[in-house]
Amino acid sequence: MSSFLNEVRRRRTFAIISHPDAGKTTLTEKLLLFSGAIQIAGAVKGRKASRHATSDWMEIEKQRGISVASSVMQMLYRDHVINLLDTPGHKDFSEDTYRVLTAVDSALMVIDAANGVEAQTRRLIEVCRQRDTPIITFVNKMDREVRDPLDILDEVERELGMPCVPMTWPVGQGKLFGGIINLRTQAMTVFDSGSERLPQDFETHPLTEQAKLAERFGLEWAAAMESMELATGASPKFDKEAFLAGKQTPVFFGSGVNNFGVMEVLDALVDLAPSPRPRLSHLVVNKQAIEKTIQPEDEGFAGVVFKVQANMDANHRDRIAFVRVASGKFTPGMKLKVQRTAKELRPTSVVTFMSQRREAVEEAYAGDIIGFTTHGGVQLGDTITDGQALQFTGLPFFAPELFMTVILKNPLRTKQLQQGLDQLGEEGAIQVFKPEAGGAMLLGAVGQLQFEVVQHRLKAEYDCDVKLESCQYTGARWITADTPAELGEFTYAYPQRMALDAANTLAYLCTSPYDVRLAQERFPKIHFHPLREHA
Ligand code: G4P
Asked: What is the C-alpha separation between 355 and 353, in angstroms, rounded?
């Protein structure tokens, strides 16, 4: 295999998803620890803390005790390059999370064994299902008094709408947690609490020592044997094709905080999770857009901006565009073009995200996430290439359900407000709508907390004190028509309802769900879109 192809094949890019408190941060840290990417436990939390200290606008994150930003970490394990994308857990930032999910090839779902599948996980699952993203499930906190494993499997199956395939099986739980049986190696690893132990330090016994294990773990052993038989009898065999098609999920049990069952997950990422997958794009030929699938091993460099973050470092007023490489090879100094504007991109730096630091990129391949530091000119959803004219599709924007009007307290800061809203809109922190009929700008959000973050950031980063007032709008639909004349008729009929978003896409603002229905009845040829894909 050529070295280029090998670089692509050895990459794994996944997102870790869970409901807050299920143990995502702990598991992330252990994965980094066991892959050798970090040396000390507590480093992930430590990193979070120092970010609070240096970044002003992250203050709000500290106040709320939630993670506003998503982060990216790269590690090397068993000669594989593993890119882990964290997702903000708070439901108000779900839009950000959805976009992160467009940048990965698989997902690791962490479940608290006492709580099962919780609300926030459910929404993320939906997005994975829509995209047929393969999901690996980790059932965490087996050292606690939790639910019956059969019960958990049943719930995961129902929620995911696909069969579970247990890869490990727990013996006991809580105070009587004896360990896990690895169904593939037919061996039991004995649980021991504490966070000092490395995975290979746990005691392991082959199941051929059945009698000894039965004696040692007594009733727990007998119950585990019975439930394991039921579970394996009821579930299909692991089928890699079915897993990759998002049609079954392998399930692992463990206790993240005790380093237990984590290595099995890390190995599954290498052995089971897919290498970078193809991505759909539009290729522009003679001003005509035609669909084209870009293969990760295609030679030309192409990537998509799935996240833009401003002022990560309070001392610099720049922005980082997070780009998921889709094909080709990136090398420093290469000429890049932003497809939307056809302008050359001249980043001040290009970085890769190691677990605790950013480093200058030496080379990057499909699956990698690289950060372009720029002073503008890049938007969420932009396609960046080495010159080829193509545009990736599939980065979703959801129609906001909450609206506020922005009132600037000091009118002399209008220009700064405009700049702030433009930038925050491009970042996707909030959606900004400019009414066609004039008047105050509108902010649209999916979660209430987004307003607070934006208000805070306008003050901290742009010195704009704003008041946010409620308004009559409760929804928006992006509109298109088959002919300009039809669109013209529609906008003529509803001049007060028309607004342009940050990407200058026309939207219809509504005050109730009936609004859309009525407008649709009156103008059957107009298309109302609840979701806009960047194109
Ligand atoms: P999150 O990122 O999904 O929000 O969860 P996080 O890892 O922060 O874990 C939430 C809490 O659950 C933490 O306790 C963590 O120590 C605990 N936890 C994680 N994995 C396990 C496990 O396997 N068993 C048990 N018993 N607990 C686990 P905390 O008290 O909120 O925080 P901390 O003071 O321990 O950091």
From this structure: 6
